Amino acid sequence: MSENLARKLIASRLVSGDMTPGAEIALKMDQALLQDVLGTLVMLELEAMGIERVATSPSVQYIDHGLVQSDEVNADAHLFLKSACERFGIVYSGPGNGISHPVHMEHFGVPGQSMVGSDSHTPAAGSLGMLAIGAGGIEVALAMAGEPLFLPMPRIWGVELTGALPDWVSAKDVILEMLRRHGVSGATNTIIEYYGPGLACLSAMDRHVIANMGSELGATSSVFPSDEATRLFMQARGRDADWVSLAADAGCDYDRHETIDLSTLEPLIARPQSPDNVVPVTEAAGEPIYQAYIGSSANPGYRDFAVVADILDGGTAAEGVSLDINPSSRQVLDALVQTGKLGAFIRSGARLHQAGCNGCIGMGQAPASGRNSLRTVPRNFPGRSGTREDSVFLSSPETAAASALSGVITDPRTLEMAYPKIVEPETMRVNDAGFIFPKPGVRPALYQTKHTPTLPDFDAFPDEFTVPVLLRLGGNISTDDIIPAGNVLPFWSDVFETAKYAFAQIDGNYPERATEESRGHAIVAAKNYGQGSSRENAALVPRLLGLRLVIAESFARIHWQNLASFGVLPLTMDATAGIEAGDTIQIEAVREQLAAGTSIAATVRSASGETREMAFQHSLSPRQIEIMLQGGVINWVKARSLGTGERRSA
Predict the structure, then answer these.
(1) In whole angstroms, what is the distance from residue 534 CA to residue 522 CA?
(2) pLDDT at 648
(3) pLDDT tens profile 72-84
(4) pTM score, two decimals?
(5) β-bridge partners, 261
(6) Which of 17, 124, 160, 388 has the fewest CB atoms within 10 Å, counting from its CB?
């Protein structure tokens, strides 16, 4: 039977489970990708599990988020991660190498292999024909220890690309078109597979742009074939031997299907404060900007910078505009030097920053309050830029460059110049500067400071409980809303310190009220709770503060998994449930109810004393139920004696 590429990739790594959408499957992971601020928790979890040596190869720890060294916190974290890499047999990519996703493509991406990453944009590697999936750190730690990655079997969504991109329209406009059509939860529990003749105009790094921001659609992953564009990418980096051809079978089916005629697209822009608030640039044209920011994992390729350099060449940024150039990798920066493009940035008055995530997650380059920032980053959730009251637009590099020159949002098609046609260098120099590879037999102690404390112990889940609802939230609550980035990000490895900032942008009194509530508490939300980053501390920290139960109309996949993995019960409700902050929820015979089916009976008492009997739903597998009831994955691992090192040594 003919199969699409995504199902073929899943079948090639399937350990157990039924490939029926919604059923739990288990996948063998070949590689692992870690970024620093979430990687710290992964390392602490590996240590808590008693793991000796990781099984995934390569496993690579990137220093790309916590780069600003205004005090000792980030520098100490780098030393901790370096020691952990040596201890567990992990490749260490030091500060300055660049953003994990494009750097991993450059050095380690292999078509056909599987990869799990502690970052929601891990699916960017699908641009090379990999099966790449983002997960919470505790799930990544288990996969690195040799356990399969468990997830609901996704639906496969085929997107046929036809035609060719017009001048001044690029890959960012393709993914913005998908977001315009389907919204930030339109691809939940779905793998998006792109195919068709339109692929001919998209390089491997163009495809990275699209696969990266598939995460903003809620997708489990995105997949492209491994074809001539992939071969050229790997050949330019001296990695021809790792290339294989991969494609869907002729006549294959998809669970869902649509077509995008690339020739009909125009420059698009996402208005504040959601990636799916997409309109044509013409509708936003003329709005003044304070900042134009080029770079991030969402536009990390040589082309994305070179086209901006050519647009800027001979011109300067408009008065009052901060033009921020955020190189994605050491290799891209080197190529810009070799091709003479870097000089255009310097002459234009741009500010050059170190290769890394930086302003994308609020670590530097925060815009002035009340001013518009135009960025080529993947997300514009409120406050993510580092400025609490921000106004961030998402656009292509072409639109950002044109707007930087004029000082207002500008349709790049109005520029009085020919569209720059960028050709990537035939050879992209790749070196191992900044990498430290593991040495057999070396297992140093972890370099721990007060900022990397041992993880807290959690008790087993109670068989009955009565808890108050401390927060009643709306839809599309992101993990940025739960645990902020920006100035809080350096403390993410210290869950006790991070707890002070939980829900800071929504309810600054939440940590105090949660701590005072000795019974524990619940949170109630609308649709798509926990969208965005895979940061597991958005589940771990509220659990530390006593969170027992989250009831939402729907969940983002990774956060739903993270809640169960730290002993929090995630339930779904009908939109008309009418539960409010101050209500009390009582659930009895938890184990019996979970074993009996997917419905959970509860008693809800309002602040006025009115009592209602209600039924909620869960979609946890028997494995997830066992983990949650034991108080989380670490307790579960210890109970199963997985941490002896005998089965996990590499």
Answers:
(1) 21
(2) 32
(3) 999 999 999 999 9
(4) 0.93
(5) 162
(6) 388
